[in-house]
Design goal:
alpha+beta, 2 domains, 28% helix, Aminopeptidase, single chain, globular, 13 strands, disordered N terminus
């Protein structure tokens, strides 16, 4: 790399709808194994929250900064095209995100090797999450029902209780996307006490979210969801503070693949991690 390359500056602007596909394609090349239809649902979560770094008109980097209510923003899809790494573009892109979100609480799930760099940017570690891999071998439960449009209001309310923020536009896509199954469970009073989604990815299937009141409901939903893809590889991303969730993955003979660290620029929101048996997505929180 010559000195002129090191000093080159990128331009950063919002992505259009079609450019989000670039970020998802790069995520696949990085081995992050996105869902087949993630691009559309991610875009629907916040159409103004996706950014491209360009050099002479070519996209060389991507980042998402999805805004939720209040001051919460979640960062994901932070990728520099391999042949442009080592030129400082990653630092420029991250600094852009920090400047844009200087009055916000910026959260992210970063790979463990990047924790020190994010700490240097002023973010604070909250907890780790681990991706587990296993084989689908569940049996369906009569208590778990497919999510219908008529369930949407109840699911959106329950999701807000677990996720911490309203995300109606995202759920309208996520719950009813192609190549997926979404299921809920209600308690004896007819109130939603858990729901989960399993979606087809480039490799196997991912379960996320898996939000439940108890390990018992998580067990019923996990079994019912995996019964729809019996014999396939499945993945579940579990926050480590949910000890029952970790035990749950281990009981199902799932093996750890890698871990991430959840970090925030301000104090960690008070999420009910005991109800989060599976993270929705490391890209969206």
């Amino acid at each position: 790399m010559n000195p002129s390359q090191a000093k080159q500056d990128i331009t950063i602007s919002q992505m259009n709808h079609s450019e989000v596909d670039i970020a998802i394609q790069w995520a696949q090349k990085e081995g992050w194994n996105p869902g087949l239809h993630d691009a559309e649902c991610f875009y629907q979560s916040d159409p103004t929250g996706f950014y491209a770094a360009k050099l002479n008109g070519e996209v060389v980097g991507t980042i998402s900064l999805v805004k939720y209510s209040g001051d919460y923003v979640f960062e994901g899809l932070n990728i520099i095209k391999p042949e442009y790494r080592g030129r400082g573009f990653g630092r420029q892109l991250q600094q852009y995100a920090l400047d844009l979100c200087k009055d916000k609480n910026l959260g992210l799930d970063g790979v463990l090797s990047m924790e020190k760099r994010y700490t240097d940017y002023g973010l604070k570690a909250a907890y780790n999450s681990t991706r587990y891999e296993g084989k689908a071998d569940g049996q369906p439960s009569r208590y778990c029902k497919p999510i219908e449009q008529s369930d949407f209001k109840d699911i959106a309310a329950y999701d807000k209780n677990c996720f911490g923020f309203e995300r109606t536009s995202f759920l309208e896509c996520w719950l009813f996307q192609k190549d997926h199954t979404s299921m809920l469970i209600r308690n004896s009073k007819g109130i939603v006490s858990g729901y989960g989604v399993i979606r087809k990815c480039h490799r196997g299937y991912k379960i996320g979210p898996l939000f439940c009141e108890s390990e018992g409901e998580a067990e019923l939903l996990y079994n019912s969801l995996t019964a729809t893809v019996k014999g396939e590889i499945v993945y579940l991303d579990v926050p480590e503070p949910n000890e029952l969730g970790v035990q749950f993955a281990q009981i199902h003979s799932m093996l750890p693949v890698f871990s991430t660290v959840r970090m925030y620029s301000k104090d960690a929101p008070d999420f009910p991690l005991n109800k989060i048996f599976g993270v929705t997505s490391f890209e969206l929180g």
